[in-house]
């Protein structure tokens, strides 16, 4: 019997993130129908990692493959969390995987989101209040004469937005991804700049301002995020706020990578690689 696959999410208070993460776990269960697949969060959402591990152990699984569902460097957080679970369950053993990172298939998915945003004539979405928290909703397309009807790729810049971290190596990795993305999928565009949602500069407004000063007529904001949720909405909200002060600049926002078969292919490959190391 193959060891279970445990997908580890960072966790979010946002229901959209939890829902999409849950759909992706279900997709993996369908793809790996002879393997137990479970998901757990490090914080902020249920099931927590400890609950998922306890459930697997109770079902007789004492070895598993742990895969962080993150595009950042989550190895330290996951290692610390799994060490705690091993203290709680002394018989538990686990194998890690290679990070998802800048896999060529993920870069291709980013290119798909870029293409979708370039073809969509809607502006960044304004905020409306739903319950106690701001949420985003779609609006009607901008009037046809508000922006130039045709903008060459050479006049269009891209801002790739990562989460941001206190770890310099993690932030440097986002810059590396931006360069790889520019050279492999966005070489026709004026530039691919790097920005971060929080913690470290430049933020989304800083990335947009650099593109404006370089002479871009259109800027497409591409979130380097796996799933929808609070972080994605913060990216959109920051882009919207900047755009309100620069109406001459056509700013468009792409979606996150999202639950899809291509992402599942990458995760399954990481799982199968880890299995090769299991004695």
Element order, helices and strands? EHEHEHEHEEEHEHEHEH
Instruction: Count all strands and give the number.
Output: 10
The coarse overall form would be elongated
Q: Could you name the ranges where pLDDT drops below 50 across 5 or more consecutive residues?
A: 121-144
CATH architecture of the largest domain: 3-Layer(aba) Sandwich
Strand order of the largest sheet: 2-1-3-4
- According to CATH, the fold-level topology of the largest domain is Rossmann fold
Helicity, in percent?
A: 40-55%
How many domains is the backbone divided into? 2
Structural class: alpha/beta
- So how many helices? 8
Round the Cα radius of gyration to an integer and report it. Answer: 20 Å
Q: How far apart lie the N and C ends?
A: 13 Å
CATH class term of the largest domain: Alpha Beta
């Amino acid at each position: 019997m193959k060891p279970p696959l445990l997908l580890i999410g960072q966790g979010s208070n946002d229901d959209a993130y939890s829902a999409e993460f849950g759909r992706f776990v279900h997709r993996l269960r369908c793809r790996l129908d002879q393997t137990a697949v479970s998901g757990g969060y490090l914080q902020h959402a249920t099931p927590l990692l400890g609950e998922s591990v306890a459930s697997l152990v109770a079902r007789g699984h004492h070895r598993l493959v742990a895969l962080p569902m993150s595009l950042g460097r989550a190895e330290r957080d996951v290692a610390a969390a799994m060490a705690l679970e091993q203290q709680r369950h002394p018989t538990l053993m686990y194998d890690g995987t290679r990070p998802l990172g800048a896999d060529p298939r993920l870069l291709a998915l980013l290119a798909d989101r870029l293409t979708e945003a370039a073809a969509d004539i809607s502006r960044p979405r304004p905020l409306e209040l739903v319950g106690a928290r701001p949420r985003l909703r779609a609006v009607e397309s901008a009037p046809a004469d508000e922006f130039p009807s045709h903008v060459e790729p050479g006049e269009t810049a891209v801002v790739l937005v990562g989460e941001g971290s206190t770890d310099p190596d993690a932030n440097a990795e986002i810059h590396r991804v931006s360069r790889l993305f520019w050279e492999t999928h966005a070489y026709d565009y004026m530039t691919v700049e790097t920005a971060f949602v929080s913690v470290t500069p430049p933020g989304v407004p800083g990335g947009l301002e650099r593109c404006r000063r370089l002479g871009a007529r259109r800027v497409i904001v591409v979130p380097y995020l796996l799933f929808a949720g609070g972080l994605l909405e913060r990216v959109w909200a920051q882009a919207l706020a900047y755009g309100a002060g620069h109406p001459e600049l056509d700013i468009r926002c792409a979606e996150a990578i999202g639950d899809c078969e291509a992402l599942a292919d990458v995760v399954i490959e990481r799982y199968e690689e880890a299995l090769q190391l299991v004695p």
